[in-house]
Amino acid sequence: MAQTTTPVAPPVAKPAAAPPARSPLRRFLHAREASTFLALVVLFALGTLIAPGFVGTGNFLTVGQQIAQIGIMAVGVTFVIINAEIDLSVGSIYGLGAVVCGLLMTSDVAWPLAALGGIAAGAAAGLLNGLMTVGFGIPSFIVTLGTLSVYRGVTLLLSGGAPISLSAKDPAVAEFNLLGQGKLFGVVPMQLVLFALVAVVGTIVLSRSRYGFNTYAVGGSAEAARLCGIDTGRVKVAAFTLSGTLAGLAGVLGLSFLSYVQGVTGTGMELTAISAVIIGGAALFGGSGTMLGTVIGVAFIGVLQNILNLRGISSFWQTVATGAVIILAVAADTWLRRRSGRR
Amino acid sequence: MTSPATIAAPPTAAVEVTGLSRHFGVVRALQDVTLSVPAGSLTAVMGENGAGKSTLMKILAGLDTPTTGTVRVAGEEVRRFDPATLLSRHRVALVPQELALAQDRTVAENIMLGAEPGSRPFPHRRRMDERAAELLDRLGLRVDPRRTVRHLDAAAQQLVVVARSLAREARVVILDEPTSILSPAESDRLFEVIRSLQADGVTLLYVSHRMPEVFALSQHIHVLRDGRHVADWPTARVSPDEVVSAMVGRELAAEFARHDTVAPAATATPRLRMRAVTGAGFTGVDLDVAPGEVLGVAGLPDSGRVELLRGVFGADPVHGGELRLDGEPFAARTPRDAIRARVAYLPGERRQQGILPTMSVADNVNVLTLGRRQRLGLLRRGALRRDADTRARELTVKTSGTAQGITQLSGGNQQKALLARWLSIEPRLMLLDEPTRGVDVGAKAEIYRLFRRLTSDGVSIVVSSSDLPELLTVSDRIAVMAAGRLVGVLPAEQATEEKVMALATGAHTMKENA
């Protein structure tokens, strides 16, 4: 370049060009959920092609039934992850809720109270997770890694190591079993209805309530949120409590579905629930993610397992596949966002 | 411009950028930028926030990839844009604004990272320390290379990053706003280091908003605006005014003239009255702020001025003393209390403490007034969007719509959005820490104009800043702090940079080398 320089100094600042209006399609493609949704569509197409008996209301409702419990847990975990925290204990809380409910049932407590007892045990466990995380100021990864073990131990102690079976001959048990085995209008599994209900309420709370707003604020930057007058501790404790409550509810549904629970019931479910949330696009750094994404993530895992089941592939391979999908989902999302320059 | 014929063409260009563009979706961060940096020179790159300086520097350091265009370093074209290639092959090093250091590793480990003597898996620790000590010595920094970086102040940490680039034998060192985290004395020390590097033949690229230092250090000035290269000159042939008008594309006339509102009535009840206020980092502060006054707070970064603001706001605890707001006892134990009393606080660390980084401009602006826009426990999104649009327009926040993510805005526009946030509570007292840090000239002028408008409405503003000329411009009075104590209050018409600095530094010249 020549050293003889003449400054170009147009006297008028150029006004920033108005951004082109975005079509609904473009807006959809830019939404965080888009990549997960497209992946789900691809998976559906694949299922249609390779899995006999995949297409059909009956099979889809079965999938709905299978994902309901994980889905209900994932709704709670979504709140925790958007808060930039993690809850590793939901699998243990699931077991705790189921065992507490089962013990109350076998002690002839009225079934609605027994169910509420299981849910309350989950809420208490979640509250404790939150209070310890905020109170001690230590990472929730550590707290819930600890309570993963503590709650599991408590569950084993409560059950005395023996399985709890509910006899369907008992009319109270028969009523209770409608929660997990009943079908709305004789078609739609009650569990799926409950999941839908939880997901809708979760969506409204997350995207339309002040609490949901605060969740994104705290997860994005806790210090900035605090300086805006948001009680960050309360927001986090509430998220853990919600997560525990929903895990307890899922446990109660699990008991109702199988009429049977053991001290080890629910082991490993936390990883599936967390996977669903991550596949759904929530970042572990916090501050981002949507309930719709989580629901798509849950459906994705459910459909994947269903296809593998229909193809008669062993559940060991299903475990491998779920793990691989998590990595692929996050890698694809990162790649897409880097390409479009979003952060 | 005078005749350019007297300047001899330099033998080689250290860095040559040709037709460089970088697009993020529809945003054009850089458009067809062509410039050349003579070997051994110090070349300044100036521009408003959002002009594309940071993007250009990131590309040169391999942290970003251009959409089109080429970069040549010492004649060789850069084919892979990643930091390792730029550093090892082309020997271009970046000293970023936000220093990326391993806080719990030693100074030597940080400096020698990637250039460890001895075998890679088992570096020779003693030789590493010696080599680090040599490099530190060359930079005139006297610290033990075995100390952990966490214990160093910002200035020393910055020199550690400079030393790291020397360890990798960088031929081109990019300094991005290096003085934004430094006190004036620390800046002077950095300038000496920069001059000695240049004397050793290192080419420097210098990004800054600050005219005096650019004019003192550079040989060439390039200006970017809206992603385009709009002007360049040899420094000796241009005036600061010309540079400013190229940056903003318009003349900034008497915009920076001294704030001269009606002198606040001495008899009025002070808006804020502090008596013997003590907290972590400040002790026994007695200070009044009048309604409609701009009170500047000057002092070195460790003087306690930031802590004082945070204490008043309730962000950190206040241990003793008395605070009154409009005559009423006022003790904010949390930010929420302060906000309820219509007290605003704008943190200096915009990225860590100011913005809600994952949220939209609208959400960032609305966060304080959600309660007013609720129905049946649900937020009224439409009303909130209109609120945000109005507030953003009032402060001329440049966005492609308030639904845009806040992090996609330039620093100046982020700051304006945050000011819009705080204006939503109709504050009576605003506590502002470094309100124009990392903000371009144009936005600065707008912020100063805003101060004037607010104070004429009776709002009191306390500005803590390390930018002395700015404080002298905008304040009615300047309070000077040193080592946690208030050491003087000067009316603006009597204050000079020298007087303020004498107060700010005089009290503790002894602990300079602590």
UniProtKB/TrEMBL annotation, chain A:
Q: Where does it localize?
A: Cell membrane
Question: What would you give as a GO molecular function for this chain, any one?
Answer: transmembrane transporter activity
What GO cellular component is one of the record's annotations?
A: plasma membrane
Q: Which CDD domains match?
A: TM_PBP1_transp_AraH_like (cd06579)
| Topology in membrane | Multi-pass membrane protein
Which ranges of the sequence are coiled-coil? Answer: none
For this protein, the parts annotated as crossing the membrane are: 36-55, 67-86, 93-113, 119-143, 184-206, 237-261, 273-304, 316-336
Membrane among the record's keywords? yes
Q: Which Pfam families match?
A: BPD_transp_2
Q: Where is the composition biased (Pro residues)?
A: 8-20
Which keywords describe this protein according to UniProt?
Cell membrane, Membrane, Transmembrane, Transmembrane helix
Q: Where is this region: Disordered?
A: 1-20
PANTHER family assigned: ABC TRANSPORTER PERMEASE PROTEIN YPHD-RELATED-RELATED (PTHR32196)
Protein name stated in the entry: Monosaccharide ABC transporter membrane protein, CUT2 family
Give the source species.
Answer: Micromonospora haikouensis
Automatic annotation (TrEMBL), chain B:
- Establish whether keyword Repeat is in the entry: yes
Which Gene Ontology molecular-function terms are recorded? ATP binding
Per UniProt, the keywords (alphabetical) are: ATP-binding, Nucleotide-binding, Repeat, Transport
Residues annotated as transmembrane: none
Q: Which Pfam families match?
A: ABC_tran
Q: Where is the ABC transporter domain?
A: 15-251, 257-508
PROSITE patterns reported in the protein's UniProt record: ABC_TRANSPORTER_1, ABC_TRANSPORTER_2
- Domain of life of the organism encoding this protein: Bacteria
InterPro entries the record matches = AAA+_ATPase, ABC_carbohydrate_import_ATPase, ABC_transporter-like_ATP-bd, ABC_transporter-like_CS, P-loop_NTPase
State whether keyword DNA-binding applies: no
Annotated PANTHER family: CARBOHYDRATE TRANSPORT ATP-BINDING PROTEIN MG119-RELATED (PTHR43790), GALACTOFURANOSE TRANSPORTER ATP-BINDING PROTEIN YTFR (PTHR43790:SF9)
State what protein this is by name: Sugar ABC transporter ATP-binding protein
Q: What species is this protein from?
A: Micromonospora harpali
Lineage here is: Bacteria, Bacillati, Actinomycetota, Actinomycetes, Micromonosporales
